[in-house]
Amino acid sequence: MGAPSGYLNRVVAALLTAVLLFGAAAQAMAQPAPAQEAQELEALKSPDGPTWRKAESDLLRQWSLSGSPAMDLLMERAQAALKAGDPNAAVGHLTAVIDHAPTFEDAYNLRAAAYVQLGLFGPAVADIGKALTLNPHDFRALSGLGMIFEGMNRPKDALAAYQMALAIHPHLARVLRAVKRLQAQAAGQEL
């Protein structure tokens, strides 16, 4: 007779979160980052490969620091679970991290990836929303949001999320390919 109500609830939650997220992310992107992070974010836009690659590496390293050996261990276990194809275990580890370190943005971002593997788009979008609230410059979260919207067959929303990611980090090869593909689809071109 139609989609199960649980699925519709997740889709509605994802869409509502996304609407709120785009407004919050756009507003948050205007807020200044700490001096070092601001320099790294600016360096991401450099046409010089070694410059932007170093900035990307420095940002990712900085964002991955939980400040707690116990949280780092749980993050490692979550990453190992994802690599082993066990997103349920990853969600468990990441939920523990978030319970103990609710301002650690990287845990929300990784849990969103685990939720996507489980096909739970609503919780994934909610986690990306929280990640972007904590770190509005996380290009990984924005590109992940684009992937989720593609999975939900929402190409216009996916394109918008990808373009927001590229506004921060214009060298994301996978995102550049996705934008090109979505723009070609929108123009009605065969790929």
How is this structure best described in words?
Mean pLDDT is 86; it is low at 15-32. This protein folds into 2 domains: 48-135, Alpha Horseshoe (Serine Threonine Protein Phosphatase 5, Tetratricopeptide repeat); 137-191, no CATH class. With 191 residues, it is mainly α. It has helices at residues 5-29, 35-43, 49-63, 69-83, 87-100, 105-117, 121-134, 139-151, 155-168, 173-186. 76% of the residues lie in helices and 0% in strands. The chain contains 10 helices and no strands.
Sum up the structure in keywords:
single chain; 10 helices; 191 residues; Serine Threonine Protein Phosphatase 5, Tetratricopeptide repeat; mainly alpha
Largest sheet: none
**H/E topology pattern:** HHHHHHHHHH
Return residue spans where pLDDT drops below 50 for at least 5 consecutive residues.
Answer: 15-32
Secondary-structure-based class equals: mainly alpha
Count of discrete domains:
2
Concise synopsis of the structure shown:
With 191 residues, the protein is mostly helical.
Layout of strands and helices, then pairs:
Elements lengths: L4 H25 L5 H9 L5 H15 L5 H15 L3 H14 L4 H13 L3 H14 L4 H13 L3 H14 L4 H14 L5
